[in-house]
């Protein structure tokens, strides 16, 4: 059973930075694609970024490209989302997700974490 546990959310001022972590357990993840999604109040969940576990392939939504960086630490089975130049519109619950689907970028995710709140004040 795959388990994903996010951490690192919090309150930050606009222009600041946060790093989210997603600790993965329960499988060997070398073939998995790991992603971050977010959901703001009253809005649908939206894709943020995805990476191959090796980190060799990444893909970002246009809204975060150039500000956010997704990365992995294989030794720690952890995926990170470094968020810089944060804006109030980045406020959302951020979710980690995993999939073995081969499509790039993946079109469906099988495993989800419980989410971590990020709030950006203006």
Total beta strands: 11
Cα Rg: 13 Å
Q: Strand pairing plus helix content: what structural class?
A: mainly beta
Estimated share of beta-strand residues = over 45%
Taking pLDDT < 50 over at least 5 consecutive residues as the criterion, the unreliable ranges are: none
* Element order: H for helix, E for strand: EEEEEEEEEEE
Q: Which overall shape is indicated by the principal axes computed on the Cα atoms?
A: globular
Main β-sheet, in a few words?
7 strands, mixed
Share of helix, binned: under 10%
Please explain how this structure is put together.
This protein is mainly beta. The protein contains no helices and 11 strands. Strands 2, 4, 5, 6, 9, 10 and 11 form a 7-stranded mixed sheet that branches. Strands 1-3-8-7 form a 4-stranded antiparallel sheet, with no helix packed on it. Strand 7 (68-73) and strand 8 form a beta hairpin. It is globular and about 40 Å long. The model has no long low-confidence stretch (mean pLDDT 95).
